[in-house]
Amino acid sequence: MNITNQKIIAITGASSGIGKAMAVCFSRQGHRVYGLSRSSVESDFTSMSVDITNAEAVKNAIASIVEKESKIDVLINNAGMGMVGAVEDTKAEEIQKLFNLNLVGAVQVMSAVLPFMREQRSGKIINISSIGSEMGLPFRGFYSASKAALDKVTEAVRYEVRPWNVQICALHLGDVKTDIAQNRVRSEVSAPYREVFNKVYALMNSHVDSGDSPEAVARYVERLLSKPEWRSHYYFGKFGQKIGVPLKWLLPQKIYEKLMRKYNHID
Q1: How far apart are CA 139 and CA 132, in angstroms?
Q2: How many whole angstroms separate alpha carbon 65 and alpha carbon 57?
Q3: Which GO molecular function annotations are given, in alphabetical order (predicted)?
Q4: Digit-coded pLDDT (tens) for 73-87
Q5: Are 15 and 39 in contact (CB under 8 A)?
Q6: Burial class (CB in 10 A: 0-12, 13-18, 19+), 131
Q7: How far, in Å, CA of 74 to CA of 166, rounded?
């Protein structure tokens, strides 16, 4: 790689799955990659142990990267968690934990990076979202809500930082074959919902098992980073999942809900 094209890239949630695949991919291409995650890992990139829900720790980590590299070109806000369970059964502390990571944590990393990007008058930020943020998924309502909240923040901050040539987008992913099932917050499901939840949960896990590879996501992000101008939203996943987004706006609500019930095996 020509040294003039080398980018300084920070990726959260880089200890496994999609985050690690991106970090390894970009590092092997010659970029200088810093992976921020709760636990550091040995790999081709620089791994930093950072809890993104700790604002002070995030600020210190980003400042240390800029001190070493003199700039930061790209932030990929990938860290997050899944959550399953019926809305009625979910405890307040579970909701708070989810939003603290998926929304507040992502915002804290953006807030730590943006002063440096404004100063250098350039930078790109990708907030990893979900196709599920575009609709309320059964038994994943709060996960959908946390990612939808991040989407709206992404849209708002795009306007705010445009004068400094900072570009931001949300990348909505479909199912990706990772260990997300083992790391989800799972609420205790009460008896009235248990039978239908078990059907939906088994289907959910089968979709993950047959999902795209983390490496395929990394290659898509690579292409995205090469674009000179970004839209606010991009979608990556199986056709059957991506098509649900435009159908939600094109179809009458009653028909769309019927299709969603069929897709999720809820009758």
Answers
A1: 12
A2: 13
A3: oxidoreductase activity
A4: 999 999 999 999 999
A5: yes
A6: buried
A7: 10
Strand partners, 170: 127, 233
**Rounded Cα–Cα distance for residues 206 and 189 (Å):** 20
Residues annotated as catalytic (active site), given as ranges: 15, 129, 143, 147
Q: Would you say the C-alpha torsion 48, 171, 4, 158 has a positive or negative sign?
A: negative
> Quick check: 80 and 100 in contact, CB under 8 A?
no
Q: Is 80 helix (H, G, I), strand (E, B) or coil?
A: coil
Give bridge partners of residue 32 from the DSSP assignment: 8
Q: Tens digits of per-residue pLDDT, 40-58?
A: 787 889 999 999 999 999 9
Non-local (6+) Cβ contacts of 111 within 8 A are: 55
Asked whether the beta carbons of 245 and 260 are under 8 A apart, the reply is: no
Q: How many CA atoms lie within 13 A of 33 on its CB side?
A: 26
The amino acid occupying position 55 is: A
Two structure tokens written together for 67: 């001190």
The predicted model scores a pTM of 0.94
Give Cβ neighbours of residue 218 (< 8 Å, ≥ 6 apart): 18, 21, 22, 24, 25, 26
Between CA 51 and CA 15 the distance in angstroms is: 12
CATH number of 3-263: 3.40.50.720
Query: Tokens 């921020």, residue?
Result: 36
